[in-house]
Design a protein that fits this description.
The complex is a heterodimer of chains A (811) and B (108). In chain A, 32% of the residues lie in helices and 20% in strands. By secondary structure, chain A is an alpha/beta fold. Chain B has one domain: Rieske [2Fe-2S] iron-sulphur domain (Rieske Iron-sulfur Protein), CATH 2.102.10.10. Chain B contains no helices and ten strands. Chain B is globular. The chains are: A alpha/beta (811), B mainly beta (108). Strand 37 (807-808) of chain A pairs parallel with strand 2 (17-22) of chain B. The structure holds flavin-adenine dinucleotide, protoporphyrin IX containing FE, iron/sulfur cluster (SF4) (2 copies) and FE2/S2 (inorganic) cluster. Residues 8-14, 34-37, 44-45, 47-48, 80-81, 107-109, 128-129, 155, 158, 243, 246, 275-276, 286-289, 291, 320, 472-473 of chain A line the site of flavin-adenine dinucleotide.
């Protein structure tokens, strides 16, 4: 028989937990839900647009009653649970309905705090929490004219904006002199106030409410300074209180909220709690993103997987008042020792402030232009070192070299057929439809379903704007670390450390040791793990071909028609007449449909069928060629210029040095592709300053540059150092490459890696510490001693022949 | 064609790997999972026709090498968030030999 799971509170956090449980194991529980409200679960945060008349209740329902039926869930609406009987493991509702549980989830949310002042119980005094409250406000707006909102926080201002749009004369009362002081500094607060005033909202700042006046129905409000203001409606938006009385009565330990551990369990191990009613590591949350994070972890434990942990969340806030763009996250008020970067354009109504500590973003406030909010938030969460782009960071992500941004709430006005994601050709309408039809909430979900923003990512800002205007907020999950993939909760760094410290040397042990949730990983973690094992234990770990993507398995680039391309290595781009003849002969013999000189100074033979590859490789091998690894996560090419040998500007022998470097580095596996170039003088014809490792020759020696990248986001290299001899160039090249191999995440280009960890760290390891540098270079050489095997030769000699020969039957 | 035909030894297919089987009419991808189960589906991704035999096998799923759609080998269904399905073919393993079942009797 299935175990019984009961949920108290049919709201956003509780139902999300059920959805996660159903995803993990739909067969596990018989589920019963109690909800005090008459509806299925609805999107509470969209009550603001409902009040403003921009959406209807039907628009914001997330789970129709049919959904509960379809999933075999018993739903009791309009029933308040009044007792949890832990001894008999049952809950009792106000109408006497009972339900037994094996596991119980408490997700009772919170209630508006009603100031304990005379008159608080008069008609016409409401909170702003549920559909009932909104209905009352809408009714009042039809018959009366004047409204007062107490509290100028997020909720209060959204309520005031809604009532204003319903034609009421609205005054907002606040105890302090800054609006939304929890989210804004005084500058942004003042800008917000000015623009709300321009819409007709009135403010009484530094006013303390003393009493509500009237008989039966509220008629006025009196302040501590004696002033009175007439009104027909009072909305209390001074804060929320977690609903804990039910849990408290049942003897479950509570402080401000119901106290839970990192597994979302209360002090009673059969009882879980999620949502606003919960207190975790001393914090309570009033936004949806952290609650969804909790829901996921809670479901993980309900389904007895046992590895999820909730470690708290960093939150960001946006105000949902149409036409006003406002964003805030983290510690946005600087403390001693912090630096602030500020950009202010009063004419355009733009204000951006970042609080920086040790070159890391700690907090952000933005007003007027919030497009880069998600980018700053990401930098904040990932603690990215910003030193290399600090001077332009305030201009936004596009100034760091990407395209596709345009203005903030302008997104709302964009036509449905406007293209948003250039990579995948996705229009705004497609995205909106997917969000609505599939009930998507997070940027990641939208990317997964529509592929928008899933390729180069430069349109993420736009996609997020669409998400915000469609569902009211971006609910982006906010863990401070990112799990490697869906198979685990461990991050790349944690896995790398476990492999090295725990001496994990094969994949089966690793899966067991780190509790992988899938039997053999997925297409995203397997190649990464294979790489980490290979780079950590080069002499012991045996490469797993089935954990490599097809390009690396068959040593060619799969093209869109399923054929492959063949690129022989030409060291430093040098070739002889015999080389070219040999390539021409192979091209004739195998009927190669097209040849092209690549940007990496070698020749690409396109359109080769898989079965032809080994024979073709053999012929090229016989002519002295080895694989160019044009498919690999590893060294691609070393590009060189004419240099001193021929060029009148040349200062050193760039061709020769390039050839040496290519002989030194070919064949190594790396986190991602790696390109080198050597230019003979600062005119830089080999484009060394957009390569992973670039050498620019100068009269006195060599400048070494690292971390450059062409591609979607062009990034110019950072200068590593200057050296005087070719031997030093080689040593630094080996050391830098090895540090990248050991330190970067799989699929992270040098450019992204350097932006994440900072140039300072690279210099500490590769330049400042001579012993460390030599050790790195030695480790690179050890790894090269087993890596420099030409894959073409191995396969031409018969290795892995099953990859190239199909089975055949007549049929 | 109504009989089971031997197409390969089990050991000819790498563990967590696959082989492509060419017939006169269609190309079929034969998979061997980590738990030694064998499946056969059409070697053509329902997205843009990518060769599934060249994807990565994990659990009872193969990920297409071109754009990472995930296909359940048992049901032939594409996994959410993407949508679609692939033809399945009957296969069995007896004494280390893989047999392909009669093609036309199945949902080809
Ligand atoms: C107007 C408004 C705007 C908001 N805007 C945003 C925003 O822009 N961004 C954001 O992230 N967050 C926003 N929030 C906050 C967000 O809505 C809440 O954080 C979230 O809904 C909390 O989820 P929950 O499941 O904990 O509580 P709820 O969604 O409140 O669910 C709790 C449910 O439990 C029921 N219940 C309580 N006790 C019992 C009982 N004893 N028996 C049966 N049922 C019971 C309640 O009736 C309620 O339906 C907003 C909130 C409001 C009110
Ligand atoms: C997101 C980014 C990129 C992707 C997906 C990508 C993809 C590819 C692919 C598939 C090939 C191989 C073509 C073939 O032979 O079959 C290739 C080759 C090449 N790419 Fe890119 N590329 C990217 C970025 C760049 C950048 C930024 C540059 C230059 C600054 C670049 C320069 C080259 C060169 C020079 C070659 C030929 C390499 C060789 O000779 O081996 N690519 N790229
Ligand atoms: S980089 Fe300098 S040395 Fe090299 S080809 Fe250009 S001008 Fe000549
Ligand atoms: S730029 Fe690169 S990825 Fe784009 S089509 Fe050309 S080769 Fe392919
Ligand atoms: S062809 Fe298979 S995912 Fe695109």
């Amino acid at each position: 028989m299935r175990e019984k799971l009961v949920l108290i509170g049919n709201g956003m956090a509780g139902v999300r937990t059920l959805e996660e449980v159903l995803k993990l194991d739909p067969e596990m529980y018989d589920i019963t839900v109690f909800g005090e409200e008459p509806y299925g679960n609805y999107n509470r945060i969209m009550l603001s647009p409902v009040l403003a008349g921009e959406k209807s209740i039907e628009d914001i329902i997330l789970n129709e009653k049919q959904w509960y039926a379809d999933n075999g869930i018993t739903l009791h609406v309009n029933k308040q649970v009044t007792q949890i009987d832990r001894y008999h493991r049952k809950v009792v509702a106000d109408d006497g309905t009972e339900a037994h549980y094996d596991r119980l989830i408490i997700a009772t949310g919170s209630s508006p705090f009603i100031l304990p002042i005379p008159g608080a119980d008069l008609d016409g005094v409401v909170g702003f929490r549920d559909v009932d409250d909104v209905d009352q406000m809408l009714e009042t707006a039809k018959q009366y004219n004047k409204a007062v909102v107490i509290g100028a926080g997020l909720l209060g201002l959204e309520a005031a904006d809604g009532l204003l749009k319903q034609g009421m004369d609205v005054t907002v009362v606040h105890l302090l002199d800054t609006l939304m002081e929890q989210q804004l500094d005084s500058t942004a607060g003042a800008m917000l106030k000015a623009s709300l005033e321009a819409r007709g909202m009135k403010f009484l700042m530094r006013h303390q409410t003393e009493a509500l006046l009237g008989e039966g129905r509220v008629q006025g409000i009196r302040f501590a300074n004696g002033q009175t203001v007439p009104t027909d409606l009072v909305v209390m938006a001074v804060g929320i209180r977690p609903n804990i009385s039910l849990a408290q009565t049942a003897g479950i330990y509570c402080e401000r909220g119901i106290v839970v551990s990192d597994t979302l369990t209360t002090y009673d191990p059969r009882i879980f709690a999620v949502g606003e009613c919960v207190q975790h590591r001393g914090a309570t949350y009033g936004l949806v993103a952290p609650l969804f994070e909790q829901a996921k972890v809670c479901a993980n434990h309900l389904c007895q997987l046992g590895y999820g942990r909730y470690e708290g969340s960093v939150v960001s806030t946006k105000l949902k008042v149409s036409g006003i763009d406002l964003f805030s996250a983290g510690e946005f008020i600087e403390t001693d020792g912090d630096e602030t970067l500020v950009m202010q354009d009063p004419a355009e109504g733009i204000y951006k402030k970042l609080v920086i500590r040790n070159n890391r973003v700690k907090g952000a406030v933005m007003y007027g232009d919030t497009l880069d909010g998600s980018w700053y938030f990401q930098l904040l969460r990932e603690e990215t070192d910003i030193s290399s782009f600090r001077s332009t960071i305030l201009f936004g992500q596009h100034s760091v070299g990407d395209a596709g941004h345009s203005g903030g709430s302008k997104m709302v006005n964009l036509a449905d057929d406007a293209e948003v994601c250039g990579c995948n050709g996705i229009c705004k309408g497609d995205i909106v439809k997917a969000i609505q039809d599939k009930g998507l909430f997070t940027l990641d979900e939208v990317k997964a379903h529509t592929k928008a923003g899933a390729s180069c990512g430069s349109c993420s800002g736009l996609v997020e704007q669409i998400l915000v205007s469609t569902v009211g907020s971006d609910f982006d999950a906010t863990p401070s670390k990112k799990a490697m993939c869906g198979c685990t909760d461990f991050s790349h760094d944690e896995v790398m450390e476990a492999i090295r410290k725990g001496a994990l040397k094969d994949m089966a042990t690793l899966f067991r040791y780190l509790n992988w949730s899938t039997p053999d990983g997925c297409a995203s973690c397997r190649p990464a793990l294979n790489y980490y094992l290979l780079s950590s234990w080069p002499e012991e770990y045996e490469d797993d071909a089935q954990s490599r993507l097809i390009n690396e398995r068959v040593h060619g680039n799969i093209q869109k028609d399923g054929t492959y391309s063949v690129v022989p290595r030409m060291f430093g781009g040098l070739c002889t007449a015999n080389d070219l003849r040999a390539i021409a002969d192979v091209s004739d013999k195998y009927d190669v449909p097209q040849m092209k000189v690549t940007g990496g100074q070698r020749i690409d033979l396109f359109g080769v069928k898989k079965e032809q590859l080994p024979a073709m490789w053999k012929d090229l091998n016989d002519a002295g060629f080895i694989s160019g690894h044009a498919y690999s996560k590893g060294l691609r090419t070393v590009k060189t210029c004419a240099g001193e040998t021929w060029c009148r500007f040349g200062t050193q022998n760039s061709i020769d040095l390039g050839v040496k470097l290519e002989h030194f580095t070919w064949g190594s596996w790396m986190p991602h592709k790696f390109k080198i170039a050597v230019s003979g003088c600062p005119r830089n014809c080999a484009e060394a300053t957009i390569k992973d490792f670039g050498v620019v020759c100068i009269d006195s020696g060599y400048e070494l540059h690292v971390g450059g990248n062409g591609g979607i986001k062009v990034r110019v290299t950072d200068l590593l150092c200057k050296v005087t001899t070719e031997e030093e160039v080689e040593e630094y090249c080996g050391a830098f490459t090895q540090f990248y191999r050991e330190d970067a995440h799989y699929l992270e280009r040098t450019a992204n890696w350097i932006e994440r960890v900072g140039m300072k760290r690279i210099k500490e390891h590769v330049v400042d510490n001579e012993t460390g540098r030599k050790a790195l270079n030695e480790r690179f050489k050890v790894s090269q001693s087993v890596a420099q095997i030409d894959p073409w030769k191995e396969r031409a000699d018969g290795a892995e022949s099953h990859e190239f020969n199909p089975l055949k039957i007549a049929g | 064609m109504s009989d089971w035909i031997a197409i390969a030894k089990l050991d000819d297919i790498p563990l967590r790997g696959s082989r492509q089987l060419k017939t006169d009419t269609v190309d079929i991808a034969i998979f061997r999972t980590g738990s030694d189960e064998v499946f056969a589906i059409r070697d053509q991704c329902p997205h843009l026709g990518g060769p599934l035999s060249q994807g990565m096998v994990h659990g009872n799923t193969v990920t297409c090498p071109l754009h990472n759609w995930k296909i359940d080998l048992e049901s032939g269904q594409v996994k959410a968030p993407d949508e679609g399905c692939v033809n399945r073919y009957p296969v069995k393993v007896e004494q280390g030999v893989v047999y392909l079942g009669p093609l036309e009797s199945h949902d080809a």
